[in-house]
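Note to self: the last two entries modelled the partners one at a time, which told us nothing about the interface. This time every component goes in together.
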Amino acid sequence: MRIGEKILYFSTLSSTNDMARQLALQGEAEGTVVVADEQTSGRGTKGRSWFSTASLGLYASIILRPKRPELSLLPLAMGLACRQTLNEIYGLNVALKWPNDLIINNKKVGGLLLESSFSGGVPVYAIFGLGLNLNHGPDDFPEELRDKAISLRQAYGHRVDREEILNQLWPNINFWYQVFLDGQDKRIINFFEQHHIFSKGEEIRIDFNGQEIIGLFDGLSPDGALVIVTAEGRKQLTTGEVSLKR
Amino acid sequence: MKTSKREDYPSLEKEMKPKIDLEEIARLLKLIEEKNLTIFELEIEGFKIKISKEPKIKAPGPLNTWVPQSALNNTVSPSPVMEEKPQPEPQENLHYITSPIVGTFYRAPDPTSPPFVEVGDVVKKGQTLCIIEAMKLMNEIESDIDGIIREILVENGKPVEYGQRLFSIQPIS
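The predicted structure of the combined assembly is written out below.
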């Protein structure tokens, strides 16, 4: 089944990823999508909450059952599909921030959360979750997020339509998922670097589990890790919060 | 609508304001699959389902015949076979759970939760043992056997390599 052929819409869920995971555990096929108007405990990575107000955002999760054992490039491929979709519809310049943020004007417009389950070294399922800020006005974000978050409405100047975005998203998601399954890793890496918020050679700061690493961004490794050149040499990171050093 | 089974999903009950439960959704999905419908829409309070499959006339696209490169040119295989290689000290048939990816090892779903498992815990096949994070992809690693956790071989928050041993499990037969 192609992604987006079957969509389940809910008015309220605790989190779309949790519902998609429940369905996956019950044997639901690859490609089924869960969409909610509101998430009561939407999640970011590591259990951080994702601010999900009723009907202002797009909250969707997709059940995937990838026939490829290593998934490290999957988040990057999905990010490319989302970026492309917003660019096609609204002409917006959406940048990617390694590994899972969608950025407009240096503010976060959306984020991806991928969760998978491995047994015996093989993925049983993966859930791709997407949260996008759609129609928030400046007052709709909590105060602590106002400098960091932006909605498509703020960036585009008009209200945006969730269904329009979803309809355009499915072909792009299917395309980039196939690129990933086909093992066109260089293509994913090249496009990601091309649309990345920092260019090679820029000085960046990474918060790596509380430890600060400063160095020059040197693109991505073949398996999607962030490469940074520090005083101690080249390092590859698979986790961490990245920002520009200013 | 049948609602008697809701207690089976306590965590979902409060969020599922819609007058439909997970079991009913699952049954509905199965029915739609059996009937092989290409277009289907149903809307009830708080829930909507939309199916719009392309008719199956086109030749099926390339099936995902992914040949794992890592499996071809990497001698470290996460399959149970590798666990048979001799150990420095003869352990009583311990089964090892290895990391399927390079990433960061987490023993709990989030910093405020207790670990998934402790040494001495009895675990079932399919039970989550840890999370390995890479590229913000949270990979839950399940046990592939029933057994007792004998060792936890990596510290919380530490990086792990592909094929690295994470847990030793004494199988229960």
